Amino acid sequence: MKTGDEESSGAGGNGRSSTPGRPSRSRTQHSEPASSTPTEELAFDTRSGEYREPKALRVQREGIEELTVRLYPDRSYVFGRAPECTVVFPHDAVSRQHGRLAFREDHRWVYRDLNSRNGSYLGREEEQGRLDPRLHFQRVGPSRDWVLEVGDVVLLGNGKSRVTLLAEVPPELVAGPRAKRDASPATVQLERSIERCARHHLPVFLRGDSGTGKTFIAREIHSRSGLEGNFVILNCGRLPQDPAALQSELLGHVKGAYTGASIARVGKLYSANGGTLFLDEVEFLPRLAQDFLVDVLEGSGSLAPLGAPADFREPPPRFRLISASKAPLRQTDLRPDLAQRLAAGDFIILPTLEERREDIPNLVEAFLHRLKVEQQYDAELTREAIEFLREASWPGQIRELESTVRTVVAREVAHQELEGLAPHRTLVTLEAVKSYLEQRELGFGGTSSAPTKKRTTQPSVESVAAVRKRPGDLTEQDIRGALEKHQGNKTRAAQELGIALNTLKARMKALGVE
Q: What contacts 284, CB < 8 A, 6 or more positions away?
């Protein structure tokens, strides 16, 4: 399979041998004593051969429908009874924070028990006993990384709470429920753009405000494109300035390259080999990192990991390149030749939440669905509460909306527990939403939303309706006034009216506005 555009993603072979910078992937039993450092490689058996990297988890919880979770290497997954865990196991045998699964820098998934009360047990699917599977599994000690691969099973406390590592993401795995309403024109256009980019392997540049979902869009493009390699995020604003540390981050290091380097590390650029490298906040990419990246894209320069011998040679990695920025490329400090590389493919301009207000009810429903399957929160918002969220201002975009929904649900569930009410479906009212947003505004240093004052960041439904109308309520006079104000510029007129450009054109056609 072709894994990258030869013109823009760096030419080079996909095959990689076991080298100082790319550790071999055999699983071996570690023989060091129990007092060894937490970062050393550990496995619970003596299997050897090619490491089989899992792509998803099958989660089984007593009395709850089975759940499948896609694995992302840039995330960690905490299992436990506490609501803030990634996947909640509501069983007394499971500790509040029982264990964590993470993708280690040597390209392996590792599990660590977080000092749980009843322990964690590791084994294989074929080793599960009928009565008590723990009899066939190995109990693992805390504060150590245990390397896991496809087919491994983790028991949390007992045999009734378990996680199985899967080789592939099941095709039926769909994030979120089916949308109850039609998507906005801006979202329909965005979906078409994602599908288009998934059908070619050219670079893609995403431009959008913070919180509009740039990382999500990049993931979707990678997932739909069929690339076999990893989706690797490089946060350009957090890269180290020290040259040695930067070389380790981008190109990796060999074991013993520096004090504390107890295992070899695969750099971000080689982690993305055969997959997608996502440059998030690319406008903040340091100049030294820009030089590294240009060398990779051009297939020139030294690409040796830190500490490798002088004669080290390896082909440059090949990957699909997706970059994202809040600013246009011409307004960044990127090298002109690098900017041209980033702009040598497709572009997607992400709409703001203000441009797709019609989608807010569907987004809220998706957030509630995720809370239910992952954290066992069974909740719904009243129609008035959803309408309030739809009309409010969201400077933090989708990220702020999701945070608000998650918080108001968690607060209402906590109130139920304080009142001693039996668990049941939680109904979040308009008053509960307003109460949280008022307190949040005070926390940011704003004024409270008393009846005599207007909200500065989260206005009431009435105050928003006075200055902004829904697309279907816009009159011919509204549209002509906005067009005259901006001398016929439809893009600026649409921004003035708070709607997408396509929505404005459709409304103009419906009203006969030339």
A: 236, 237
